[in-house]
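To whoever is on call:

I kicked off a structure prediction for a single chain this morning and the downstream step that reads the tokens threw a length-mismatch warning. I double-checked the sequence; it's 170 residues and nothing unusual in it as far as I can see. Pasting both halves so you can look.
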Amino acid sequence: MKAAAMLRGAVNSAARWGNRAGCLLLFFMALLITSDVVIRSLAGTSIPGVFEVAEVCMGALVGCGLAFTGVTHSHLDVEIVTELMPPGARRYARISGHVLGFLFCLAAGMKTLSYALDAFANGECTPTTSLRTGPFILVFGLGFLLLAVVFLLHARDVFSEGGEEARHDC
């Protein structure tokens, strides 16, 4: 029980730090794109590579926020069918959903990490700015793996406590 609480605290902390990093990345992207638009309107030319920098940053931005949505229960949760089920079937459906989410995020995270390692090994970079893509892909993969742990913790909560999950929309 104590180990699960420590893991939950570490995951919550990592998810919140990831969210902060994502907010900083979003601010940087907004500043970069705004600067490009202003320079384009004033000087009639664009900053080279803005599109591809924003493109690789967007992947990292998504990776930064994945676990935070799971930790705060901010993800989309459609309960039209499950609310009509008896409590036992609802519990089984929630556990199954969390386990499937865990398996999907684990597979996606492992594949993305494999791709990131290939990008590091091959020195993959963007064509215009020669920006290395490996770190951005790595952040995306780590976001999937952290979300997989969040799904596993949610499944454990529903299984061990035998009931409903925390709701933040009430």
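Update from on-call: the warning came from a stale cache, not from the record. Cleared it. Sanity check on the structure: The chain has four helices and no strands.
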